[in-house]
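Quick bug: Nucleoside phosphorylase domain-containing protein output formatted oddly.
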Amino acid sequence: MLILAAFPPELEPFSERYRKDARAIGVGLVTAAHATGALLALARPPAVLLVGSCGVYPGAAPAVGSVVVVTRTVLADAGVAQDQAALPPPMATEAPMDGAWMERFAAAGCIPAVTAGTLGIATDDRLAQALAARSGAEVENLEAFAVASACAAASVPCIAVLGVTNVVGRQGRIQWRDNHRAVAARVVELVERALA
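Here's what came back:
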């Protein structure tokens, strides 16, 4: 299994056994899509696991500090959420996750959640609420949609396990800074339990 994360600190807590199959792909939809596509072409792994962090939308169930397994990832846009833009119908707005892997990570203690893939981090409380309402997602992450889309195009099973570091909105970046290392360690703990 190829393990991906946006940046190296999310991979550091892995034991050497798993770290040798782990790669950082960069932050954001575009960078993650390009890097994942290139790695899939080179490695042809049997499956891909994305690990990282996410923010929970206000009022959604997963608590800060918990770990979610992504059941579905949807493309979300601030303009669309505020009825100021539209995604053209041919554009893919949902990317699949692997059901068998999902069940395995849920059994290890991860909470099932729908993830919104956004181009930018929502830093406004009202925008966070609008994105949640329009997308139907509980959490927001910048890479899951891109990685899942690249995997679908290459017919490679994909799963994402993300630690909840913050509530999406004006305090989100401060909370992420304070929590991301501890949450990354918790993600790794559950991943290694599920893969053992």
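Actually, after a second look the formatting is fine. The two ends are 13 Å apart (CA to CA). Closing.
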